[in-house]
Amino acid sequence: MLRRGGQARDRRDAVVRPLVLDEARLIARIAARDLRAFEQLYRIYHPRLTRFLTNILRRPQLVEEAVDDALMVVWKRPEGYNGESKVSTWIFAIAYRIALKARSRHEEPVEDLQAWSRASPEAGPEQDLGNRQIQEILSNAMGQLSAEHRAVVDLTYFHEAGYREIAEIMDCPVGTVKTRMHHARRHLKAMLADRFGTDWR
Amino acid sequence: MTARRGSPSDRDGHDGVRDLLPWYVTGQLNEAETARIEAHLDGCAECQAELRFEERLESEVARLPFEVEAGWARMRRRVEGDHAEQPVLRRLQARAPWLGWGVAAVLMLGLGVLLAPSLRPAPTIDAYHALSAAAAPEPGNVVVIFRPDTTEKSMREALKASGARLVDGPTSADAYVLHVPAAERGAALANLRGRREIILAQPVDSGGAP
Hints:
Chain A is 68% helix and 0% strand. In chain A, helix 2 crosses helix 3, helix 4 (60-76) crosses helix 5 and helix 6 (129-144) packs across helix 9 (174-196). Chain A contains nine helices and no strands. Chain B is built from ten helices and four strands. Chain B has a four-stranded antiparallel β-sheet with strand order 2-3-1-4, with helices on both faces. In chain B, 38% of the residues are buried.
C-alpha cells in the first residue's frame, strides 16, 4: 500500500478517519436506540456526506437536507445494515440514492461551477502560487465533469473507497466505475497538461 | 500514443492495470491486484508515468475540500448547542437559523454579499477609525462566530489574545469580522480556533486587500 504524508493527507484524514471505531458496533447500539452512539456516528459521517453530496447536488440547501435525511435513515432503520459490506458503503449508498432523488425533484441543473473554484480556507498569501494555480485549474476541470464522474473521483481520492465499494454505493457495475474514473482522469489530465505542460503529462 | 518499453503484449492487461492505478495509489486493492500491478509496472514506462500522475492528482484532489469545514462547524453548533435534554430527532430536525447554510455559503464565497461591505473600508468603519485612532481603515481578514452564550469578557479576551481588532459585527448571521496583522494571521487563527467559545474562525480576504 502506498502511503504518503503531507498536509493535504493529514487534513483529509481528519475528515475521513476522525476516530478508529467499530462502526458496525455503533450501528448495533443505534438499533438499541442508543442516542450517544448515533451522535458519534453523526459526527463521523456528517462532514463526509456533506462533501460527497456537494459534488452531486451542488446546492447547499439540498445538500444539508440530503445529509440529514440520509443520517435519519440510519437512525430510523439501522436494521437495514446487513453486515455484509462496510458501514460506510451502506451509508454512502443511502446518501447517494437520496441525492439522486433530490436532484430529480429539482430538475433544473444548477451546476455550481464556482464551488470547485473557491479558495481553500487554508489558502492565503502564504500559499505557494504554483499550488494555487494547480488547484484553480483542477477545480475548474472538476466542475466540468458530470456529477457521476465527480462522485467517482471524490469517492476514490478523498474517501478512499475501492472500486467495488463505489459500484455498490452507486449501484452500477464495477466496469462503469472504472470507465467513469478513466474518463475523469483523462479530462483532468488534459486540463492540467494544457496549462502546465509536460509536468502533468 | 507513447511507446511502451518492455510492456506485456497483452493490451487488455495493460489497460486493466492502468485503470486500477487510482485504487493502487489509495491502497484499496487486494493482494492479487496489487501484485499484478507491481509486476506490470516493472516493465511498463507508460504505466509508471501514469502512476506518477495518479499520485499527484490524488494529492491535489484531496486538498480541494473546504466546504466540509463550514458545514461541520454548523453541525457542531447544532449538536452541541442544544444538548441531551431534547430528543435526538428534534435536535437533528431543528434548524439553527443564525448559523444555517447562509453562513456556510457566505464563508465559502469569501464572505460574499452579506459580509462584503465589512471587508471594505465602509463609511461606518471609517467613522470608527476616525474616532478611535488616526490609522487608515483596516479591512477585515478573519471572520469568527462565537458561541451564543459567550460573554463580552470572553470575547474581549479572545480578541486580545489573538491580536485581533473588531472590524464589524455582529452581522445578520451573528458573525464578526476581525482584522489581524497579515503576517500573524496563521497564529491568530490557531489561537482563535483553540478557544472553546469560538465555533468557527476562518481567513477571508477582501478584493484588494493583501
